[in-house]
Amino acid sequence: FVIHNHADIGFCLVLCVLIGLMFEVTAKTAFLFILPQYNVSVPTADSETVHYHYGPKDLVTILFYIFITIILHAVVQEYILDKISKRLHLSKVKHSKFNESGQLVIFHLSSVVWCFYVVVTEGYLTNPRSLWEDYPHVYL
After folding, report:
1. Into how many domains does the chain fold?
2. Could you tell me if 2 and 66 lie in one domain?
3. Peptide bond into 56 cis (omega under 30)
4. Distance, CA of 30 to CA of 61 (rounded, Å)
5. Is 19 in the same domain as 41?
6. What is the mean pLDDT of the chain?
7. 130 and 102, same structural domain?
8. d(Cα 94, Cα 90) in Å, to the nearest integer?
9. What span, in angstroms and rounded, lies between the C-alpha atoms of 95 and 62?
10. Which UniProt keywords are present, listed alphabetically (predicted)?
11. What CA–CA distance (Å, rounded) separates 111 from 8?
């Protein structure tokens, strides 16, 4: 039951957290699942730089995003890969390999897009030295 319905179970848990954001009483608890909890603000000349430290409350946030990943995995499987594999009329072995490769392609493409987003927004293209200056970095 759990293997066949893991995405539905994860969706119910994520939906409970998102519904918890709608009410003032439960919003504080729901934010534990979505945001990093150990905020360290550093005032600068222009404004304020926000860094994050890590701690045990981050495990709840990681668990929440694992459920989000499970849901995205199921959506890609159901609405993209299964539809393509039905049109191709693949054998069971080729169907399995196609699904695994398809999930890997989606994962790597999204990772590359996210990587370019981070590189551009953090300014690593214009100043690549900031990657290793003041290393080791204490805050996230």
Report:
1. 2
2. yes
3. no
4. 10
5. yes
6. 89
7. yes
8. 6
9. 31
10. Membrane, Transmembrane, Transmembrane helix
11. 25
The residue type at 112: V
Is the pLDDT at 119 greater than 80? The verdict is yes
Q: What pTM was computed for the model?
A: 0.77
Q: Give the whole-angstrom CA distance, residue 86 versus residue 36.
A: 41
Are residues 14 and 65 part of one domain?
Answer: yes
Q: 11 and 55, same structural domain?
A: yes
Provide the domain limits for residue 102.
90-139
Rounded distance, CA 126 to CA 122, Å? 9
Residue position matching structure tokens 């603000």: 41
Lowest mean pLDDT, pick from 28-32, 125-129, 133-137: 133-137
CA atoms within a 13 Å half-sphere pointing along the CA-CB vector of 48: 6
pLDDT band at 138 (very low <50, low <70, confident <90, very high): low
My answer on whether 76 and 33 are in the same domain is yes
* Structure tokens, 16: 């409970």
Q: Which residues of 28-61 are buried (b: 16+ CB within 10 A; e: fewer)?
A: eebeebeeeeeeeeeeeeeeeeeeeeeeeebeeb
